[in-house]
Design a protein that fits this description.
The protein is built from 13 helices and 11 strands. By secondary structure, it is α/β, with parallel strands linked by helices. It folds into 2 domains: 4-76 and 112-244 and 331-342, Alpha-Beta Barrel (TIM Barrel); 80-111 and 264-320, no CATH class. The strands form 2 sheets. Strands 1-2-3-4-5-6-8-9 form an 8-stranded parallel beta barrel, surrounded by 8 helices. Helix 4 (83-99) packs parallel to helix 12 (298-313). It is globular and about 55 Å long. The two termini are 13 Å apart. GO terms for molecular function: dioxygenase activity; nitronate monooxygenase activity. It catalyses: 3 propionate 3-nitronate + 3 O2 + H2O = 3 3-oxopropanoate + 2 nitrate + nitrite + H2O2 + 3 H(+). InterPro entries: Aldolase_TIM, NMO.
Length: 344
């Protein structure tokens, strides 16, 4: 990473401009983060859906390896849902839940993923890098983390978000294209980001803000990585291509779906969580997307028991098979080998 804009990461000793992106829900493991760093890259632990105690334990595990690493945090950006809309969708899903003997939450469950408590963990035991997604944290949080010696990265999907992040004091922007797997980091989940090619988005945002940019979304080949670096990114973040890595904890059902020839496309859906996310198309999406309401995190909590039961049973048609458009490049190799190959 020799770009003059890369000063925010130069002290971390990275030699590969490819990072292991955080994948909440279990796929990212401390072993993956450690393997990425030992290859000369860096990985991010995913704080999403973990308790502050579990996050602290993962940080402690990675810190023992004496490596550079980051932690990604979901910023509370709730999408309200009425009780009537929630129950309408819950009623529609009841037959699916009955197959597994499940009782789905009767009323909306809204929480902030223990945001303040996780920030307390990160201030009490500062880590090299903290990234945020789903929204912009309060400026006081960014200021406190930077004072603690942490580099702050903000996920953005549009120029307007990038400007807001720069004004709030972010050190780095993680520019995410609409083709990225998993949840979109958009600040406005009711309005999808414009489908701008990642190289164009990187160049535009980098030039407008003057901040270093990490590119993310659909990057699964050395050529794609080279393209975003040529566009001005200091690094590329990859996730989907690591789902079948040796160190990944993605479910066997998810791993198998990535190489299933019957899975021919990815789509953006809100059917699983009430917030737009990209995954492999399956019958759950086909059946429920048109009637699925926006409503995060309530819809996430509604479908979570069903998704977990289906994954355990090997029923890929009821699972959120998060994947970006480069999913066919996911390989059964070590994290180190995959990242090294992508660096070219």
């Amino acid at each position: 990473m020799t770009s003059p804009k890369s000063s925010a990461l130069t002290g971390l000793g990275l030699s590969l401009p490819v990072l292991a992106a955080p994948m909440a829900g279990g796929a990212t493991t401390p072993a993956m983060v450690i393997a990425a760093a030992r290859a000369g890259a860096m990985g991010f632990l995913a704080a999403g859906y973990k308790s502050p105690q579990n996050l602290a334990a993962e940080i402690a595990t990675v810190r023992e390896a004496s490596i550079p690493f980051g932690v990604n945090v979901f910023v509370p950006n709730p999408v309200p849902i009425t009780a009537q809309e929630y129950r309408r969708y819950a009623d529609a899903l009841r037959s699916e839940a009955d197959r597994f003997g499940l009782t789905l939450p009767a009323d909306p469950v809204d929480d902030d993923d223990a945001f303040d408590d996780k920030i307390d963990v990160l201030l009490a035991d500062p880590v090299p890098v903290v990234s945020f997604t789903f929204g912009l944290p309060p400026k006081r949080v960014i200021t406190s983390l930077r004072r603690a010696g942490t580099v702050v990265a903000q996920t953005v999907t549009a120029l307007s978000e990038a400007r807001a992040a720069a004004d709030a004091g972010a050190d780095i922007l993680v520019v995410q294209a609409v083709v990225a797997g998993g949840h979109s980091g958009t600040f406005t989940p009711d309005r999808l980001p414009e489908a701008v090619p990642l190289t164009d988005l990187v160049a535009r945002i980098g030039a407008e803000t003057g901040l270093p940019v990490i590119a993310a979304g659909g990057l699964a080949t050395a050529e794609a990585v080279s393209g975003v670096l040529d566009a001005g990114a200091i690094a590329a973040a990859v996730g989907t291509v690591l789902l079948r890595a040796d160190e990944s904890a993605a479910s066997a059902t998810h791993r198998a779906a990535l190489i299933d020839p019957a899975r021919t496309e990815t789509v953006l859906t809100r059917a699983f969580t009430g917030r737009p996310a990209r995954g492999l198309r399956n019958s759950f999406i086909d059946r429920y997307e048109e009637i699925a309401p926006l409503g995060y995190p309530a819809i996430h909590h509604l479908t979570s028991p069903l998704r977990k039961a289906a994954a355990a049973a090997g029923d890929a048609d009821l699972v959120h098979l998060w994947a970006g458009t480069g999913y066919r490049h996911a390989r059964d190799e070590s994290t180190a080998a995959i990242l090294t190959a992508l660096a070219g």
